[in-house]
Each structure stands twice: as C-alpha cells, then as structure tokens.
User: Fold these one by one.
Assistant:
Number 1:
Amino acid sequence: MTAVSAPGDTPDMNALAEQIKAWGRELGFQQLGISDVDLADHERYLERWLAAGYHGEMGFMAKHGTKRTRPAELVPGTLRVISVRLDYLPAEVETTKVLGQPQTAYVSRYATGRDYHKLMRKRLATLAKWMEAEVGAFGYRAFVDSAPVMERALARKAGLGWFGKNAMLLNPRAGSLFFLGELYTDLPLPVDAPFESDHCGSCSACRSACPTGAIVEDRVVDARACISYLTIELHGAIPERYREAMGNRVFGCDDCQLVCPFTRFTRASREADFAPRHDLDRASLVALFAWSEEEFLEKTAGSPIRRIGYARWLRNLAVGLGNAPWSEAVEAALWARLAYPSDLVREHVRWALARQREKRQELIAVSRKP
Ligand code: SF4
C-alpha cells in the first residue's frame, strides 16, 4: 500500500487518489474515477431537455434548479466527485430470449434481484471511512440515485465512458449494464482524463430498436415515450398509442442496451444481491398477475419494483397480457381482475380483454378458412 501521509504531514493527493482506486476495487466496484465539478455543457443540455418537456411527470428533474449541475450548490465545498461503476447483470439470466416469449414477463435486468441503493451506499460510506482514517476528517456525501446528481455526466468526466446514442453511459470494455454511484468530496484530488472519444460511429442500432421511438435525436430521449418511464415513473394511464409496442415489458426496458454491440462485453455480476428472486427473470405474466397485494408486498420487499406499488404493477401486467397471444388462461386472469377496486387497473384490464377478444376472433376466422 502506498503511504499517503505520515502523521502531521499534508496528505499526498496523488498517492491518495491511487489508494482510493485500489480501495474501490477491494470494495467490489469495477471502476472508479475522479472528476472536477464543472458541468456547464451538461447544464445547457439539461435546460434544453427540460424546455422540450421530455421529462414528462418527472418534476424532480426540474425542481432543484442548478443544484443538479453544480455539485457545490448541492453540497457546499465540493471540489471533486469520485464516481464508481458496479456491473449488475446476473450470471445465467436470459435477456432477448425472454423478450421473444410474449407470455413471459420481461423485467428490466437491473430489477430482478435486490435493490442496489443500500449496497452501493454502504460501500461508498466504507470508502469514505477508509479515506478518513488516512487523511483525517474531510467533507463528503455519498449518492446513489438519491439526490439531484448528474451521475452519467460526472462519470463521463471521470473517464468511465461516453454517452451512447441511447443517452446511456457506455464503457468500451463493459457495455452499459452497470450502476453508478458518487462520493462528493472537498478534497482537492487529482482528476482523471474525461472520456472524450465516441465509439458509436455510424451505428444507430439503439435508435432503430427502441419499441416506442423514444430516442428522438442522438443522445436525446423523450422520456414520455420511453417504456422505462411509462412502466415506472408514470402514475396514471399508459397512453394507448404505446401499449402494443410495450409487448411483455412490465417493469423498465433494456432494448436499447441489449442491441448495443458493446453489450457483448458485459461481465456477469458476482453480487449475490443481484441474483434473480421469485423467478422475476422468467415468470409468466399470468403468474405475476395472480399475486395478491400481500404477495406483492412480501416478494418485492427490498426490490426496486416495490416503489411502483401494487396498482401500477397490475396496470403494467395488464398491458403485457393484452399483448400476449390469446389463451384461455390469459383471458381468465384478466376477467378475474375486471372488478379490481382501482379505475386505473380496470381501464387497462378492459383494454387487454378487448385485445384478447380480437385475437380470439382472428384465430376463429383462421380456423374456419377452407
Ligand atoms: S447501439 Fe450503437 S449507437 Fe447505440 S449506444 Fe450502442 S454503439 Fe452507440
């Protein structure tokens, strides 16, 4: 281990930065980088994105003013941000195969296991404690999706990757299936070189693959059309024009990442917390739709799915069932929810039943053809 400082000496920031990176690896992060806090370019991008209304109901994206783009306004005294990357794709989990099985529910692969926030925050807190033991008390705060933080912009500045045309942060050796976390600090650490190159080239596979056409320009996503937004952030009815395109995606969507050529570099996560629970990587739509509210609360405890609540869970599954091939089991599952005490759920169930009836009629018509 490099000696950062002798007792009473001013800490050597270069040695500390190296030590922090070694600690990051020891804590299980795949990558760690350090940036300054100048996000002026991204502030302009965010202003344009908000002005276009692309954030939809996500009022929290607009409500913090410049705290999101000026880290020192969020945490006074912040000079540097330590960004970390943690890969999440569990080993032996199917992705595109499940998307091709319309009777099976597709849950975004970051959400089939336990929630990542606690795990990452704990590790960032440990990192801060180790730093404190080395250099004495210093100012810091750890974030994992928990505050207005431009996590991808900071990670790009810290050298962790570039912005793909799908607006995700892409790493040339790891793809984009990873979580990001940040430690804001007042230590004047040396910064890493930002990731300047763009490896997308002439590829636009993500834009073509988006089921709802949500990537309106390179690196610009209209969240209002994005299936992740529709199934997780949106509180009300899912606009009918998007329902068919949602297919079997009932919580989030990974399509723009799965088609990306860099996704083949994804390394399976070794984190036990991210292993799928309750068959959420392979369960049928009918099986999940049959969960009672008690089962939902019990099985999604400690899962990112919990935050959408039972009614929106049923709403999303109803859309998936409407898109599934006709079967008696699917129709019966929908009929069983037709009187569910929520206007939101009932409206989506009626829509799904109408779709199922159309499919049944089509099957009957085909069977009668000579
Ligand atoms: S699919 Fe192609 S264009 Fe989209 S992020 Fe990946 S490399 Fe870039």
Number 2:
Amino acid sequence: MVSTLVEARGLVKEYGAGVRVVDDVSFTIERGETLGLVGESGSGKSTVARMLLRLVEPAAGEVMFDGRDVLGGSAGKLRAMRRRMQIVFQDPYAALNPRMRVREILAEPFAIHRERCPRERLAEMLGEVGLDASALERYPHEFSGGQRQRINIARALALRPEFVVLDEPVSALDVSVGAQVVNLLRELQRRHGLTYLFISHSMPLVRYLCDRVAVMRRGCLVELGACEDVCGSPQEAYTRELIAATPEMRIV
Ligand SMILES: Nc1ncnc2c1ncn2[C@@H]1O[C@H](COP(=O)(O)OP(=O)(O)OP(=O)(O)O)[C@@H](O)[C@H]1O
Ligand SMILES: [Mg+2]
C-alpha cells in the first residue's frame, strides 16, 4: 500500500529584505520511496529539506509527517517526531566532532533523546554500514572520506528513523567511493523500509537511486514526476540543461 509519509504544502522561506529563496513549494514523499531533489546551486534544495525537519523555520506553509503537523506541535511532540527523521550532510569531515571517539559519536543520538543505548547496538550499527567494531575506539581523522560518511550514516540510523534526508551525501567523495556509499544506502533502505529525500547535482545518480524526482529553480519547483519520465523526456528546458550538465556515470 502506498501512503504519504511526508508532505510539504506551500513552503516559503525568505532571507533578508523579502527575498524568497523558497517560494510556494509543495510535494509529497510516499512511504518507502526515494524522492530526488535536484536544481542548480542556490535553488533552495537544502533549505526545503531543513524545513521538513524544522531545522529551518518556514515563513509560510505546512509540513506534515505521518499525518502530524511538524510546525505547529509542542516541543515534546517535535522531539518525538525528530526521532523518526534524520539528515546526512554533504561534508563527512565537518559533520563529525574530531574530539569524539566513534563510540561517543554513535551513542550521542541516544543521549539526546534520553534513551538507553544497548551495549551491542554500537557494533551492530557499524556492521550495518560495513565497518568493523574496532572502529569504535578510533577518532574521525583516522578514517577516509567514504568511511566517515558511513559513520555519519550509522549515526543517522541509530534510533531507527523512518525518513532520512540525504543532502548530497556523496558529492564530496570520489566517484567509485561515492558509488559504494550509494549502494549501501540502497541496501539499508531495502532492509529497513526507509523513506529518502535524496538531494543531488547528478542526474545519472538520481536516475539510479530515485523513484520520483523534483526539480527546483530559483526557489520554485518547476517539474516533478517519475524518474523515467523526468529524466527520459523532461518537460522543462531547465531540466534538460541539468541533464546535459552531468555526464553519464557508471555505478559499480
Ligand atoms: N542562513 C541563511 N541566510 C541567508 N541566506 C541563506 C541562508 N541559507 C541559505 N541562504 C540562501 O538561500 C538560497 C538557497 O540556499 P540553499 O542552501 O537552500 O540552496 P541549495 O539548492 O541547497 O544549493 P547547493 O546546491 O549549493 O547546496 C541561496 O541563495 C542561499 O544563499
Ligand atoms: Mg544544498
């Protein structure tokens, strides 16, 4: 059964003197699907994603998560919803505190939500992202970019969320390393029934990973549809430009 997990309705964000960086954006994300979000730099992708999680406060509009209002609820209700949604950022270096061991990094979400972290859970989390339990006692600088992004993914999945925003999760990685991380994300999605919002500049990657894709330009959503349709026969000239701008890519 298809059902909507996330819904954005008429989202608006302004910075400065009434400049709309997000302008009346509406879409849904169905349970278990991957929605791609593409558009040139500065088109408002990250701002939209952050509003879904209420990390950025919209000037107008609504966000529903599993039928509940994300923007209107109490702090307690927001906390309960936040547990079910997570975000993985582009830069695997900036996202990890260099002074914390991996053990502490992975345990942090449990502390934030005041939950007990079962002893075996940390090693299990690392195993899920293809890292050995010996990584627990090491520091972020001891890992490669791809390994760091795996640690970020493990951290994001710590509390077993249903919805994960992937904000250009492989853009900072070499192509082959990024492809392995993308395949890991697919595998984790399959195993846990995750719902993804996948932000990317790479149309081939979006085509590989996403069910539907939304195209943003200057704060507005200009095209939204099934990946085959949007990538195969784009309706907007802007979408055609985006496709032309990213060369074909082989996923290993
Ligand atoms: N905190 C902020 N204060 C002021 N302006 C901001 C802020 N955050 C974002 N912006 C502006 O909003 C616009 C949209 O930014 P956003 O980061 O959402 O774009 P993006 O599509 O994610 O771009 P990229 O592909 O480069 O990540 C940009 O013009 C940006 O400069
Ligand atoms: Mg961005």
